[in-house]
Amino acid sequence: MQRGPARLGIVGAGGIAGGRHLPAVRDLGERVEVVAVVDVDAERARTFAETWNIPRHYTAIEAMLDAESLDLAVVCTPPGAHRPAVAACLRAGVHVWCEKPPTLTLAEYDELMALEGDGGPYVSYVFQHRFGSGAARLREQLATGALGRPLVAACHTMWYRGHGYFDPPWRGRWDTEGGGPTMGHGIHQFDLALHILGDWAEVRAMMGTLDRDIETEDVSMAAVRLESGAMMSVVNSLLSPRETSYLRFDFTDATVELNHLYGYDDSSWVWTPASHVDERVSAAWAPRPNASVASSHTAQLRALLDAMDAGARPPSSGTDGRRSLELVAGLYASALTGQPVLRTDLTPVNPFYHAMNGRPVAAEMTA
């Protein structure tokens, strides 16, 4: 049982830390206290600490972990720095909440999962769209069979990032970002889709670099067969001026749609009954009045703290947090080989287990 506010440290003083995580912390009031921030840029760490009234700042994560008695570290670094930061925190006995994408590879993910102890500390990952009441309502209906069987789904992340977005040297590269919009953008939506529909079984994909001067893709498309037998289309784009995040779930008795961009509330969802469904039945499907919870970092942090208080593994961790990264690896493997990929193919003997482009750094160095 957590006594008093959870002592929290911020790892990485960039835009996502101030834009999303600190507001979430403040939303939860006395449940959590930010006691330190660390960033390799000393001036950025100092400025961040002053801006957010954080008592102490550091330039090395080891120094922060040695000096502070943290309960939770929030990792907000660029993707290539996730693995060493998370590993250092777990070894120090500190729970971690890490920004997406979780790691650059499945191999790295499994390495970190092996550092978790029995009963913790655990590392969970930022997939905040799972935690809105609309998604919870749909999962409940799927579990009870209220809408019938899932048959068809669409999961489309149609976003726009101009050429300047890729100016930071770590963006658009396999070795530092792990991929393009499939890895860093669309992963949010298909994490939500898989959270609702369950594990995937097979993927057939293509991708291209159509307009941006980058190493990775700027668009990808895939057809996914789920373990249930349902089929889902996946589109990930950074070339779409009218941005939207669109999920659609077709069941035998209803279509459920979610239209949003970077977050939703209950008003973003629409339930449409099939023609054979009685109106008195379908009237009960929509989210309950006065129970709306928006998808947000706040909602996920609250669930994480609840799990820590209970001594339980948090959602979006372990195998539960891994399935979306598996789909990323499977999609890239299919697109780059031109072959269908089964989820069961992604074992340590598969090159796409070790690198999202199938070319592990060690192999490149010795080639």
From TrEMBL:
Keywords: NAD. Residues 137-254 form the GFO/IDH/MocA-like oxidoreductase domain. Residues 7-116 form the Gfo/Idh/MocA-like oxidoreductase N-terminal domain. The keyword NAD applies. It comes from the Bacteria. This is Gfo/Idh/MocA family protein. It comes from Georgenia alba.
